[in-house]
Write a structure and sequence with these properties.
Elements: E1 7-13, H1 21-25, E2 35-40, H2 44-54, E3 60-63, H3 78-91, E4 96-99, E5 105-107, H4 112-122, E6 126-133, E7 138-146, E8 150-153, E9 159-162, E10 170-179, H5 184-202, H6 206-218, H7 225-241, H8 247-263, H9 267-278, H10 284-298, H11 304-322, H12 330-349, H13 353-364, H14 370-387
């Protein structure tokens, strides 16, 4: 019998997973993994079709405990479901767990055993793989874990907390998982509800508040701006009153606060929130948001020209930082376009129409954008009048 490490596959499948399970699991034959577990993240009524779809093509299918399902029959504690899948793999004699999500397409799975060998040799507790998404985003995410090296935490936006926080993880770009994020909106709404339920039952938790702020901001709904601000302020109060110390996360909250303040037309406060965020991290998104806030402040202001020049400065900072990232994500390209838009608007307001047109032409290289196109037409019109 081979003494090689035994690799198990762990999947959480909700009620909507039925059409995707077979296709998702197809690449993971016995040459890739030794054992496969699917935990059905739904109640029995909603989850039985998933159970029947997964049973013929996996080694074990089981339901998550009813305690972790909400009144609608949906999973409300993803960490509990992940933990169950890992425990079942350990009971089956597996040494490693590979996490695969429904609707993903994987390439490079033939390298998984090679990665496990390198993890064994180097004592790595987990391995990062490359993830790509339909919106162009590219990330690195832990997906292969040595069992017993950590614990799953978080009802939603769950994460694997390593026993040794200082441990170094293996990393490879040979293995890639891809998702079109067809259910991104539904997942966001589910995460919002789970987060609210958690806070109601357990009180404020900084990580839950952090993700609630992000998920609500992702709706881009001005009617939710006050609620976003409430959760962000509760996060900040919690940080001030406890020893919770995650500067990057706190800086991200200040950046998201700025977005909510802009929705509420509280532009000077948005600038202050951006400055607090920039004190920790130099990020093009923050500079672009600050450019927007200062541009809005310049309208009808006695300090219009200084504010416009500050807008141009902030936009330039966003452009310098953001351009190297545009090859990876649609969000980075959107940041570039936003910076160009506000810079061009400021330049045009200062009478520098030709310069503004060049900036807008650059923005259009990153794809269609209605506000950019509208400002482009306006500046062209101004140039036409000047030329006459």
């Amino acid at each position: 019998m081979s003494d090689r490490p035994k690799i198990g596959l762990a999947m959480i499948a909700g009620a909507s997973a039925v059409p995707y399970i077979e296709e998702t699991l197809a690449p993971f034959g016995l040459d890739v993994v030794d054992y496969a577990v699917v935990v059905v993240g739904a109640n029995y009524d909603k989850g039985m079709p998933v159970y029947k779809a997964a049973e013929p093509i996996t080694d074990l299918v089981t339901f998550v405990s009813p305690d972790h399902v909400d009144d609608e029959g949906k999973l409300k504690n993803f960490a509990a479901a992940r933990t169950l899948s890992f425990d079942l793999l350990a009971d089956a004699g597996c040494d490693y767990a590979l996490v695969v999500d429904v609707e993903e397409q994987w390439t490079g799975v033939e390298y998984i055993r090679e990665v496990v060998d390198q993890m064994e040799a180097g004592g790595f507790p987990a391995s990062l793989f490359v993830g790509t998404f339909g919106d162009g985003m590219r990330i690195e995410q832990l997906r292969l874990y040595k069992l017993g090296t950590g614990k799953w935490k978080g009802w939603c936006h769950n994460f694997y907390a390593l026993n040794d926080p200082e441990a170094v993880c293996f990393k490879t770009d040979k293995i890639i998982f891809h998702s079109e994020r067809a259910t991104a909106h539904a997942r966001r709404e589910q995460n919002i509800q789970i987060g609210r339920d958690y806070l109601e039952q357990n009180g404020d938790d900084p990580r839950v508040l952090f993700h609630l702020v992000g998920d609500l901001l992702g709706r881009k709904d001005p009617d939710k701006a006050s609620k976003i601000l409430e959760y962000a302020n509760r996060y900040i109060v919690h940080v001030q009153e406890t020893h919770y110390n995650h500067p990057q996360e706190e800086a991200e909250v200040h950046y998201m606060r700025a977005g909510a303040l802009l929705m509420l037309k509280r532009n000077p406060e948005a600038v202050q929130a951006c400055m607090m965020s920039l004190s920790v991290m130099d990020d093009p998104r923050i500079w672009a948001t600050m450019a927007e806030a200062t541009a809005l402040m310049s309208i009808g202001s006695m300090s219009g020209e200084p504010l416009l020049r500050l807008t141009i400065f902030c936009a330039d900072q966003a452009l310098d930082l953001g351009k190297p990232r545009t090859q990876y994500t649609s969000n980075a390209r959107a940041t570039i376009q936003a910076a160009c838009y506000f810079k061009a608007g400021a330049l045009s307001a200062l009478g520098q129409h030709k310069h503004a047109l060049g900036v807008l032409d650059h923005a259009r290289l990153y794809g269609a954008n209605s506000p950019v196109d509208a400002l482009h037409a306006k500046v062209c019109g101004a140039l036409g009048v000047l030329a006459e």
